[in-house]
């Protein structure tokens, strides 16, 4: 199957104002994606949201022009979380949803994520069809002047999403008495998350809520949880939660300021859903990155764990195929499938907060349901072809031989950055450090030679 030229594991992503993240390509994406979803004579509609990056001001009008040129009306909702775009696309009966965001990346990057009319991310096949249209020219799809689309703003998008997320929290429960730090990464959730937590009764300590176009994910948010942890200890909070730039993932901390990753949170929610009789399918869907400790914990509850390749889109596809309603990633993408169609950091956090609030015990007694096996992940900057080098293949084979029967090794290319990720897991911490460092060194040497 031909590799995709523009799309990675989570839409199109790159450095702003350089290919593929230019206004020209955004215009082309708007035209090609619009043509893919235009069928029939009715007025077609696309919804566009974004996070708080400066380059959103460049990409939003370029996408809008592309969609308008093929006859689609555009609904602009401004800065909202990615899951809000998924929800609003369905709610408004739009033909397509677009989120302009590079998620957890720094402000220099940006991205384009596409959602179908059902609120789910597009499949690889549909993305290939869009790429083909971008490559082959789209002049034939341009509409007559009288059939051009229009653009409008939806003023109550944030309010609609907040009510949707609050509906996922148990109606008989409140967060009264809980002091919660919420780090919004100066990103798309900076208004939504503190407001929702406050309205549900929590005392809220907000940080990362002053976006300026440049500071998104900068020393804050789910990929830099130290800021959240410090704030929890400083304010004597009961727990903390940290979103990423587009608020589709969450990492938490207990009252001691100890980080709780997505695997632990999935374990907490899985047990809660099982006790409520609302866990569908008897399995939880995660990726190859999830700790084997989670797998063993779920087995102790009589539940299974099924793994997919990395990317919450693939988790969702497996959830749908197996009729499961809970899945996610170690990084904090957690999908509550009977409510949402994609990872939702705030919704996931509310499911965990419901357990903490009802337990009336410290968060540290709730948020670590299992002891994770030692796991080490390191990244090295390199192009994907480095993995075909003989020296690299030899080192990988040697590492796998050392770990045979004692752990596992996972090597994968990032779908969003020019990185190779090397992860090892096993009971012997020294051994996994040795094999990871060996593979990283081999890849670095090979990359330096090219």
Distance between the termini: 26 Å
- Looking at the overall shape, the CATH architecture of the largest domain is 3-Layer(aba) Sandwich
The overall number of domains is 4
3D shape: globular
Structural class: alpha/beta
- Residue stretches low in confidence (pLDDT < 50, at least 5 long) are none
Largest sheet: 7 strands, mixed
What portion of residues belong to β-strands?
Answer: 15-25%
CATH-defined superfamily of the largest domain: Alpha-D-Glucose-1,6-Bisphosphate, subunit A, domain 3
CATH topology of the largest domain: Alpha-D-Glucose-1,6-Bisphosphate, Chain A, domain 3
Q: What is the total tally of β strands?
A: 19
Mean pLDDT: 94
* Strand order, largest beta sheet: 1-2-6-5-3-4-7
Output the number of helix runs. 14
CATH class of the largest domain: Alpha Beta
Helix content: 25-40%
As a whole number of angstroms, the C-alpha radius of gyration is 22 Å
């Amino acid at each position: 199957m031909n590799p995709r030229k523009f799309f990675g594991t989570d839409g199109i992503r790159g450095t702003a104002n350089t290919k593929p993240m230019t206004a020209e390509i955004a215009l082309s994406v708007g035209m090609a994606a619009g043509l893919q979803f235009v069928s029939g004579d009715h007025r077609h509609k696309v919804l566009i949201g974004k996070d708080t990056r400066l380059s959103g001001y460049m990409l939003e009008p370029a996408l809008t022009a592309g969609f308008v040129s093929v006859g689609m009306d555009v609904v602009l909702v401004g800065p909202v979380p990615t899951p809000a775009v998924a929800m609003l696309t369905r709610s408004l009966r739009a033909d397509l949803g677009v989120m302009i965001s590079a998620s957890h990346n720094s402000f220099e990057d940006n991205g384009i994520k596409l959602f179908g009319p059902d609120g789910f991310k597009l499949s690889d096949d549909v993305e290939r069809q869009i790429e083909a249209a971008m490559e082959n020219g789209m002049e034939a799809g341009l509409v007559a002047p009288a059939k051009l689309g229009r653009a409008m703003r939806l003023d109550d998008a944030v309010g609609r999403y907040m009510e949707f997320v609050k509906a996922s929290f148990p109606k008989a429960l409140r967060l009264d008495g809980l002091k919660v730090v919420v780090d919004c990464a100066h990103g798309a959730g900076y208004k939504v998350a503190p407001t929702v937590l406050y309205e549900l009764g929590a005392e809220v300590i907000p940080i990362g809520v002053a976006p300026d176009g440049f500071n998104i994910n900068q020393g804050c948010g789910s990929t830099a949880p130290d800021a959240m942890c410090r704030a929890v200890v400083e304010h004597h909070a009961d727990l903390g939660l940290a979103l990423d730039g587009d608020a589709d993932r969450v990492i938490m901390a207990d009252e001691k300021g100890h980080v709780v990753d997505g695997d632990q949170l999935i374990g907490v929610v899985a047990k809660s859903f099982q006790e409520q009789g609302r866990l569908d399918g008897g399995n939880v869907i995660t990726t190859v990155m999830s700790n084997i400790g989670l797998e063993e914990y779920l087995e102790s509850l009589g539940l299974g764990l099924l793994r997919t390749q990395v990317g919450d889109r693939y988790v969702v596809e497996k959830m749908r195929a197996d009729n499961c309603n809970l899945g996610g990633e170690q990084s904090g993408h957690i999908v509550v499938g009977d409510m949402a169609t994609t990872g939702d950091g705030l919704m996931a956090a509310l499911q965990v907060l419901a357990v903490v609030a009802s337990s009336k015990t410290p968060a540290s007694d709730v948020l670590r349901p299992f002891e994770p096996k030692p796991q080490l992940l390191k990244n090295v900057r390199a192009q994907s072809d480095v993995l075909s080098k003989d020296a690299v293949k030899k080192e990988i084979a040697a590492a796998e031989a050392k770990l045979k029967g004692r752990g596992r090794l996972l090597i994968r290319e990032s779908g969003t950055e020019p990185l190779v990720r090397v992860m090892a897991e096993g009971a012997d911490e020294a051994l996994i450090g040795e094999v990871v460092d060996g593979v990283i060194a081999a890849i670095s040497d090979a990359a330096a030679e090219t």
